[in-house]
């Protein structure tokens, strides 16, 4: 598989969401008759959208509101919510400096130690608000924070790293035994991130309840530029979904695939499901909400790394409430609002009733899908020529 890129070197062609399109069948369905529910562990959620564990997107208030609307928001236990009793003041500092000092200000804000008492406090605050409490940590802190989170009543624990693998070697700290950790935890464990069939299958076999897919596609992420690592999301989701299906056939255990990053519009989300995702995790689209703590600013989890940042601070603006972004009514014409409405309408137009059927949709390679007939939109920066291009450019 692949084509020659040099003497003795082959490379495989991979695809992003902008390069593919979905093909309708000989049946259409009323969008209101579609079913968007999905399961993670023992939890059943009304909509298959998760809010990324980024400090510009999720705080306690946001997590509660996301839960009230049927979704799930992940609170970052490595972030400012667990470093400061009052995170609002430090957020003002992060979003206020001139652009040339963005990284320094973020790094300074994250230099304060994590307070383990705040881990329990934030979880309890979310639970009191009536929502599911889902929290995230890096592998090195998973065992310690996992125990605290579980005791505090967390519903889901997420282990997230730039590149996840079933085995990790280190001479300076103890590596996490993911299989042992999953057995220790009484709540569902989601792990990631990965992009290949082999790694996905190995991670799924450890006993995780969900798998995050995506390396570097996020709007605020610079991993692909800094490390040169990544696989375009359409291919990554297809490959990892194949691992999920193989494992299900072998064991009868279904482990949901969660496409993480690379989605700005409703169309992107629809394509992620057609490629095999069971749910999607988005950041920049939700950073635009009135409820997001970043007030229209968005930065990645690795932005604050003191040695090699793999993220930046971008401005996406505030365009509506969380309810409007998820359910409408849309006040913009670019596909960035009423994401659930877009998903239901796409499913109805494709003739599929639920996410499982959506995963069987015919996909074509369509490099002109974003540009064919759209010259006026591109020139005038409206519709498909407006917010998506701006978001990808970080403006």
TrEMBL record:
Q: Does the keyword Disulfide bond apply?
A: no
Q: Matching CDD domains, A to Z?
A: IMPDH (cd00381)
UniProt-recorded Gene Ontology molecular function terms = IMP dehydrogenase activity
Q: Can you give the residue ranges of the IMP dehydrogenase/GMP reductase domain? A: 15-361
One Pfam family from the record? IMPDH
Please name the Gene3D superfamilies in this protein's record. Aldolase class I (3.20.20.70)
Keyword GTP-binding attached:
no
Q: Which UniProt keywords apply?
A: NAD, Oxidoreductase
- Any one of the GO BP annotations: GTP biosynthetic process
Superkingdom of the organism of origin: Bacteria
In the record, the note on similarity to other proteins reads:
Belongs to the IMPDH/GMPR family.
Q: What protein is this chain from?
A: GuaB3 family IMP dehydrogenase-related protein
What is the organism of origin for this protein?
candidate division NPL-UPA2 bacterium Unc8
Q: What is the lineage of its organism?
A: Bacteria
